[in-house]
Here is the input.
Amino acid sequence: MQPIIKVEHLGKKYIIRHEHPERYVALRDVLTQKAKKLFSFPAKLRPKTQATDYEEFWALKDLNFEIQQGDRVGIIGRNGAGKSTLLKILSRITEPSTGRITLNGRVASLLEVGTGFHPELTGRENIFLNGAILGMSRVDIRRKFDEIVDFSGVEKFLDTPVKRYSSGMYVRLAFAVAAHLEPEILVVDEVLAVGDAEFQKKCLGKMEDVSKNEGRTVLFVSHNLSAITLLCNKGVFLKEGMIVEENEINIVVNQYLSTNLDTNNEQIWTKKNRPGNKIVRLISVKVIDTSLLSKGIYLTNEDIGIEIKYEVLQNNYILWLGCNVHNAEGVNIFDTHSVSSEYYIKPHTLGVYKSTTWIPRNLLAEGIFTVGIAIFNHKEQVVHVHEKEIVFFKIIEDINSLTARGQSVGTFPGVIRPLLKWEIKQSKNH
Here is the structure.
């Protein structure tokens, strides 16, 4: 069967320019330069100095893969891995530096807020414009028009220029257009994160529908491994512009988590890049044991601590801490909030804080887990910080100690592994 997408030796190079900052010039420097000019060569004979350095940066390096019609492909990797660059090339927004891509179908892309929309045109006009770009007739677009408007939920603003839309409205309409105008290939980046949770769920359902029921191909980039795992059947794991793994989605997700495990059981930000806002910023997140040592591998019968260090920059804000844990398949094992802390009802004052919450021993099963952190206040509907998949850890089972497995061998299913109390008594009644 001919692949719908074929990528051969694909590479993308950017030229990065480094300009040297001018240093402060004192009066003595000016006098010195004037004196030097008396004894120097004419300007045209003096050697030229290099004020700018150029550096080659390969965002993608020699990529080779094929995608079949109807595949739902999740593209994963850490920031800077080349995911968005790959989608831009597949969407013909940018040209590759080396190699080639063969596309056997129309591509509809949703890569960033406003992709493909003209800001001065109304929502109605942009629907027809996007349809025309995809090569559809006005009759075909009219046939899908009501479906698009209903899905997007922007009927009241249909005749308003889209430059006045909020980012959420922009994305809702853009996704509705991209998904309903019958492209053979639907390309979606992390942009769906702009929408609310209900709309994200709706989008995932639509992507699954166009793939499974209509046989269309979906390429999906997201940091939400749960969404990736639920939607996709295939995966591509990128690291530093190269393919690390291309396989079934569960295999790719596990490889991604395993690769990051050794270096990401703790995350410490520099002062310049701490996540947050003018009220609070994250300093570090660590997975620790009871000796307060940060490590990546734990036994099922070990307590596991999640240590969060943060700085409060403004007084009198009530800040709640949140932590969620997902397994390698993207299943949300649990969420926990700082409800037992005095600061759940007490405002923070200026300063640095450290909070540790403990996952009790004999709770989680063997496997790889990711931790996400948030600082927020649902009462005020404010999220100050929300970082997904910050740190990773792995749990293995110690066969020499008492666990829920006991003396069983082989696969032991379940996402949790609690050591429950059992009582067995002989009954006197027959």
The chain has two domains: 57-259, 266-396.
